[in-house]
Specification:
The complex is a heterodimer of chains A (113) and B (115). By secondary structure, chain A is an all-beta fold. Chain A is 0% helix and 51% strand. Chain A is built from no helices and 11 strands. Chain B has 115 residues and is an all-beta fold. Classes of the chains: A mainly beta (113), B mainly beta (115).
Chain lengths: 113, 115
């Protein structure tokens, strides 16, 4: 059963700690994305990667880092430099064919206190 | 600068009636538009899309209309069902040919369908 798996569903961290959110896909998609959702803000793009070992900053990349060592995996690290890390984080992927829709995972709710 | 705008944060309709969700965009270079549906604590799911070369696309109860001159698109749901109650996001992309493809989302509209 193909899909995108984000783990864990809920994550709690103390302020000042880095935390890594997992995203794995078995759809054989080339491109992967990280979005952040805040109440009333819609979805904002953090980072994206079109191929392995390459990624680009999105609109709100500050305080985040990513890696793309394998096609299936695109982990997101929320660093202590991110000023407002508490949010709902969504990972997505799609085939690199023209205009194929993004498929999303079920998200990770990160709470930093 | 918000390039994709959904000006109605919420919409309430009666079951069986039509739901119309609206979306405006400012970047005339956008050439592909999508609607996603999202339940709380879940990821968005793709509903329907439209290319800028068309003005209408239909899939079952869902129809998307595109008015390029007005930079406006709308999603019609007929008939509306209680299970349609969710947040609906409009999204747009620039021509990319597959590379550098990314979606710009609106802030969403919460649709409530009352039995």
């Amino acid at each position: 059963d193909g899909g995108i798996t984000q783990s864990p569903k809920y994550l709690f961290r103390k302020e000042g700690q880095n935390v890594t959110l997992s995203c794995e896909q078995n759809l054989n998609h080339d491109a992967m994305y990280w979005y952040r959702q805040d109440p009333g803000q819609g979805l904002r793009l953090i980072y994206y990667s079109q191929i392995v070992n390459d990624f680009q900053k999105g609109d709100i990349a500050e305080g985040y880092s990513v890696s793309r060592e394998k096609k299936e995996s695109f982990p997101l690290t929320v660093t202590s430099a991110q000023k407002n890390p508490t949010a709902f984080y969504l990972c997505a992927s799609h085939l690199s064919s023209y205009n194929s829709p993004l498929h999303f995972g079920n998200g990770t709710r990160l709470t930093v206190t | 600068d918000q390039q994709v705008k959904q000006n109605s944060p919420s919409l309430s309709v009666q079951e069986g009636r039509i739901s119309i969700l609206n979306c405006d965009y400012t970047n005339s270079m956008f050439d592909y538009f999508l609607w996603y549906k999202k339940y709380p604590a879940e990821g968005p799911t793709f509903l329907i899309s439209i290319s800028s070369i068309k003005d209408k696309n239909e899939d079952g109860r869902f129809t998307v209309f595109l008015n390029k001159s007005a930079k406006h698109l709308s999603l019609h749901i007929v008939p509306s069902q209680p299970g349609d109650s969710a947040v609906y996001f409009c999204a747009a992309s620039l021509p990319s040919g597959g590379s550098n493809y990314k979606l710009t989302f609106g802030k969403g509209t919460l649709l409530t369908v009352n039995p």
